[in-house]
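Dear colleagues,

As part of the handover before I leave the project, I'm documenting each prediction I ran so the next person doesn't have to rerun anything. This entry is a single chain, and its sequence is reproduced below.
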Amino acid sequence: MRRKFLWGTAVLYSLLHFAFTGVLQPLRNFYGDFLASFPSWKIAQLTGRLDLYRGSLSERWGPPPIWHYGPVEHIITLPLFAFSSLRTAYVAWLIVNYVFVAAAAIIAAWIIDDGRPSARTSLIVGIGFANFNPLFEALTQRTIEVFELPILLLAFLLYRKMRDRGTGTLLGIAAMSKFLPLVFLPWLALRKRWRAFVAAVVVILSIVIVTQYALGWQNSGIILQLIHGVHVDTDTNQSISGLLIRLTSWSQEEIAVATLAICVACWNALWSLFFPRTTSHCDDFEFSILTLAMVLLIPHNEQYYFVLLLIPYTLMYARYRAKWNRRLLPLILSFVTIAAPVPLSLLARVTGLNVMQLYLHWCIPLAGAVILGFFLAREYGTSCAV
């Protein structure tokens, strides 16, 4: 009886939390990174919908012909040009994002129970998703990471089932959504999954060629940022550069050099960790570590990037759900730190402090990601010994 009461309380709390923070908050929002990239000037011109572009955040962010994010975003959002206004298109895109989240939750439960999701697993996945703060941020801004989440989960599922062409195709699509999943290509080669590697390369090259004709890579905002260098000096930057900005008074050039050195050292250590191991039963660790690295070891990020950390949490729950012990405390602490399951706006009302600003300024999500990295590295080293 007590267990049913606790389950019921958790479900009710999760539904209310998601309703207020995952539904009402996004519906009230009309500003964010998606609107800074959609609509692109070129596609608005080609579709005859420059009315959507004029006066938009996208126009202010990137004057013609600059476009932002990966080309896949501009492909899957083509139907939005059929809507009468940018605001109605933005609401429609939110509904599509809920479909992506539902798909991710279904795939996560499928992975955990190996194709036969139980009611208990479905509840746990639903509660975890419904109380994950980076997911709320991603939904509020309708960012492409929400699309990448089910794509990467499905890519792992196919990888484990030896469906290499499907794996490579999905990783190629994810990589062309926002480039970060490119980190999985060297891993496919290292593990000699050549069909997956070739499939990913074919998809990427095909999209690269089409994009050059349609948008022009010389106009890519991300490429221009990489060339000229950028380290966002805001509390939402939860990368290594964000930490250095907070802790030092260095110039942007010094931060760029230090960030590059740290990232190169970490990536070298990462591949050194992977290289001697050939066992297939550690693919969940490796996929998790690469997912963490791709959102952390980059010039800058935003809090909503951490929505992709639902992938390592899913895979680690699948591995350890039947054998919980004290060694898993860092994993739990990491999840609670990043998920922030208690609404920060509620804590702000109780304390009178800007809790969200303090949470981000003191790099609490980054600390949670570092704890997750510690756990993954430790368990990978002991569970996957050569």
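The chain is about 70% helix and 0% strand. The chain has a mean pLDDT of 89.

All the best with the project,
I.
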